[in-house]
Amino acid sequence: MTASARGWRVSYHRGAEYEIRKCAELFNPSNESLLSVGRRRRSRRFVVVDENFHRLHSGAIRRYFADNEVDVRIVSVPAGEPNKSVEAYVSLLDALDQFPIDRRDEPIIAIGGGVITDLTGFVAGTYRRGVPHIRVPTTLMGYVDASVGIKTGVNLRGHKNRVGAFTPPARVLLDRSFLATLPRRHILNGVCEVFKLAVISDLALFEKLEAHGPDCIAAHFQDEPGLWILDRSIQRMLDELQLNLFEDELARKMDFGHTFSYGLETCADSQCLHGEAVLIDVLVSSTLAQSRGLLKRSELDRIVRLAFALDIIPPLHSLDPPALWESLLERTRHRNGWQRVPLPHGIGKCTFVNDVQQDEVRTSCVELMALSRV
Ligand SMILES: NC(=O)c1ccc[n+]([C@@H]2O[C@H](COP(=O)([O-])OP(=O)(O)OC[C@H]3O[C@@H](n4cnc5c(N)ncnc54)[C@H](O)[C@@H]3O)[C@@H](O)[C@H]2O)c1
Question: How confident is the model at residue 348 (pLDDT cuts 50, 70, 90)?
Answer without folding.
Answer: very high
